[in-house]
């Protein structure tokens, strides 16, 4: 079902300008933009410090990134979300709560290299990305080889991807893609909420609803292999 456009969307987006770094497509052709367009962000200047930067791809309503930023005030966080209706909620949350170390990009993940310098990100978080089952959509999954190549270029030498999903199919496919693309897979669990990583896990509303039904949450870390 198509999401209804939020009321007063544009004025509300304008009020979020202090935390919004980029919006839309610089070119209609995403491939051409990813290869040729560059407007690299000066992250130390934007955040006013040299703290490490971590990135969530597909931030949804911002619950995860807001809590992460509260817990880790010495880390800067970037949140990417393609849907303007959705990212607006996340930005308004961060502004209302006065969280200083989060900024947003309302862009397709394919063009992250247009804005983020190479090897500028310590971690990439993929929380409950759309599984997109079937071979037709395999290339669009956020753990497909083309996206993993983007993350590898953005990550620091010891950078990592942290993934959570409720889809066993997507999880198994992601593990295979990490290995095939040269990442070292570690900290794998097929029942996060009953694992050694449960205490530090940030549970989003979606995750809590799914887990309340007695269904497992899958989690893994993929680290850049030297």
What does this structure look like?
The chain has 226 residues and is α/β, with parallel strands linked by helices. The protein has a single domain, classed as 3-Layer(aba) Sandwich (Rossmann fold), CATH 3.40.50.150. The chain is 32% helix and 23% strand. The protein contains eight helices and eight strands. Strands 1-4-3-2-5-6-8-7 form an eight-stranded mixed sheet, with helices on both faces. The longest helix is centred in the middle third of the chain and has 14 residues. The mean pLDDT is 94.
What attributes does this structure have?
226 residues, alpha/beta, Rossmann fold, eight-stranded mixed sheet, 8 helices, 8 strands, 32% helix
